[in-house]
Amino acid sequence: DVLSTFLTPSGGQDEETAYLVGASMLVSVSGSEAGEAVMAYLTSAQWARAYAALGTGGTAHHGVEAAQAGSPVAQQVSQILQSRQSVLRLEVADVATPERVTALREALTAWASGQADGATALSRAEESSAQ
């Protein structure tokens, strides 16, 4: 997963700092060796270090030293994302409605459990996104 975070103004001194977080979720629909290799790389410390080095975003991956990120902003974002004191609330309603998220989750679960083949699960997921 790739997470980005931005500081937002707090309402007062005694309030927690609020963070606006966006996320990119990785989903593998292939059990192939090549697919597994790609997923392993995209969740590795090596990839997280390369991403953070670009300086365009931070990383929550604990295999990356926040101080090594490519920009001061990426360093601060990485510190926030890696801190066990940070509480992040993800909101995806702007991207997908609860009905679409539920339909996608159900389609992926059916495929992963063998209750639906790949074509059927994909069809269900596509139908939910067309609504």
From TrEMBL:
Source domain of life is: Bacteria
What name goes with this protein? Alpha-glucosides-binding ABC superfamily ATP binding cassette transporter
Name its species: Actinomyces urogenitalis DORA_12
